[in-house]
Amino acid sequence: MTTKTMLLTGGSRGIGHAIAIEAAKRGWFVSLGLRDASALPTGLSPETAEAVPYDAAAGGERDWVKGVLERRGRIDAVVACAGILEHDRIVTEDEDTVQRLFEVNVHAPRRLAAAAWDALAETGDGRIIVMASLSGKRVKSKRSGLYSFSKFAAVGLAHALRHEGWDLGIRATAICPGLVRTDMGESAANGGFPPEAMTQVGDVATLTLNTLELPGTLCQAEIAFNCQPDGIH
């Protein structure tokens, strides 16, 4: 098949959902890894997308990749959007919360990239997007400390994948939004910023697809953006 194929996590809502719709519009086939894969999310059709049972906290990346290769014959991009937000203290003794945060925000994207690695290399221009956060560039508050801890690791993951895959034509980028108008963004704002003034999910989706479609000679290691002045961001 010549249609480019994307593996996407977090595609049931928010940024991930918007990316899936934008990708389909641009002619990609999107394989969405969803905890509830009983139906495709709104706005997607079986001609351009599929829903595959997948829980970022539970693993199963290799089975997902194997199935996509059997059905589609190729994997051109991995876009890791699944993420969770915790407002616990950085000195928390709740190790289950810390482990869950890192499992979803860091370990699952690494496992998915590793599982799809050979297929990405085979294309000669594979692409990886790790949807990180400005919280992976700075710790804005005590309330965001634990979340930032995981997102700093997510940014580091994207850099490590970029180095690992460079000679294979694989390019990896950490996308680092500030407040985006999603359930998670509104939770992070804690009522202190109007949703209509936040970055909109459609704009993040456009940026993500533009990044995926850049030539290998124009790789952006990180893309940080914001809807408000916030230090250098």
UniProtKB/TrEMBL annotation:
InterPro entries: NAD(P)-bd_dom_sf, SDR_fam. Belongs to the short-chain dehydrogenases/reductases (SDR) family. This is Short-chain dehydrogenase. Gene3D superfamilies: NAD(P)-binding Rossmann-like Domain (3.40.50.720). GO terms for molecular function: oxidoreductase activity. PANTHER family: DEHYDROGENASE/REDUCTASE SDR FAMILY MEMBER 7B (PTHR44196), DEHYDROGENASE_REDUCTASE SDR FAMILY MEMBER 7B (PTHR44196:SF1). Keywords: Oxidoreductase. It comes from Salipiger thiooxidans. GO terms for cellular component: membrane. Pfam families: adh_short. It comes from the Bacteria.
